[in-house]
Amino acid sequence: MKGFAGFAIKKVGAACITVFAIVCANFVIFRLVPGDPLRMMFRDPRVSAEQMQLVRERFGLDKPLGEQFLAYLRELAHGNLGISFWQKRPAMDVIADRVPQTLLLIVTALIIAVILGTIFGAIAGWKMGTRSDSVILSIALSLYSIPAFCMGIILMLIFAFQLSIFPLGGISTAASGFTGFEYWKDVAWHMFLPALCVVFWYGGEYVLLTRSAMVDALGQDYIITARAKGLKESAILKNHALRNALLPVVTITGVNLAFAVAGIIEVETVFSWPGIGRLVYDAVMKRDYPVLQATFVVFAVAIVLANLVVDLIYGYIDPRIKVGGGE
Amino acid sequence: MTKLLHGLSSVKGFVMLLWTNKMGRFGLMIFAIFAVIAIFAPFLRTVDPNATGSCENMLVPPCAQFWFGTDDLARDIWSQLIYGSRISLLVGFTAAIIAVAVGTAVGVIAGFYGGKIGEVLMRIVDFFMMLPTLPLMIILAAVLGPSIWNIIFVVAIVSWTTTARVVRSQVLSLKERAFVEASRCIGAGDSLLMFGEIFPNVVPIIFAQAVLVVTTAIYSEAVLAFLGLGDPTTVSWGMMLHFAFESGVMSRTPNWIAPPVASIVVLIIGFTFLGTAVSDVLKPGYKETRGL
User: Fold this and answer.
1) Which residues 165-194 of B are in CB contact (within 8 Å) with A?
2) Is 0.90 surpassed by the pTM of this model?
């Protein structure tokens, strides 16, 4: 356990440094802009120089950079990432309102995508070089390469506009008065297309990942040993090949979250799903910079934490890391 | 240097090698079609894509005069589509060249010198790789303001890291090789070793990275424009979709949204196939798959 504790401390330390770097980057980005950042924010010639000066004083922008940075860190420590220009309330509250919807959509879709992707990827890898492999592979490659927002528009065009079997967007029918089971049925109906979109695109990637991990695993000596022992093919597949193929797939899940965030923003925007992704779009449209910055920090920190959890789980499962003391 | 690497050290050799691969040929053909459209855009368009028309020409369905109909400002969709290919390819290639150049420089320096400099550079790469790409691009594009050059800059700044990492690991293995040792023995300096001996051997990997970065750059431009961060003075496919979504009438105008979506999807799939072909031809023991 000592080896794992050392490994865990090292990983947590690295994560803390990364979070601090993200926080600093967020502070720096707005100061990198050539010219006056306030001018950029209020792109309106009607805002007079006096009004600008007032805003500058109100937000402490007339103070030296070091002092501004300390104030920023102090506020951040209290969970304050600024006030939304648009909704006139703390940006963190605006984001917190959107978290449950995003989690509902993404967790549901990711579970389905990972299960289906792993199954089809394992089949393709197991039957490498056959017709079913090339069919699965080319479908997966196409699904994975089509941008999520394009996939969303295609699905919307077919199922919502032409066939009218699914709603155009939103999370529930407005003013329907549904309660209990009826309400959740309505939500599921609204969630179908956005979730399908995430499943297609993320599932395609998992097929590719699992397939190549499976092909690698099948080339290993222990598979030959298992065959030589006279084990059944199904036992080799289940207990030897798939088990080992899943390890790299688990590790990559954490790294992939950075990638999943892009999908969330695109899909939620297309289907007007009231989550954080759609909030990013709304903030862009309303030029709500504090919310935009806050979403960036929230996404970045969430990715670092998710990676940390995956690393720790992986370190705990994989005996080599424990023995090696985190090397 | 092996024959394979030799074939890959010039653009012409690279294209010819890709042509021998089934997926590579498919990708090259798609790219060629869009390149021709982009180059000859002024001849293929029917009217000026930015010219707004009169009220009776708003949201016209496809007809003889407007092949794909018009949008809510009475602009011709066909002409916008033709000019959109220019933006996609311009952003894709310019951003890729910048990103690959920066990535190669960082990778060569980090791999060749190693030590403290290499460590610091790779930490920066690790940090960039951890950041959520799209939110970072969105926030930068929003702060910098809408212009095509800002989009190129924003795309390049998030795309150089993988090249740096791949080039570095290649340089690390190259610098231990006998031919580099030999040159060092006869007194070659660092810059001669880097540019004369190591760099030519990294070129195939740079080409491979360039194809991948062009793909993500085309995608990134489309997403940013779709999210309303594009340059309003230049029509791009993502921008057309953005205007269609904001118009509130898109459920009745498939002729407005289907063409740009199809263009983005086909171009990106073409480049994805090219990318797959590149990783195929770079594998040792690659066999040509002539004939479709």
Assistant:
1) none
2) no
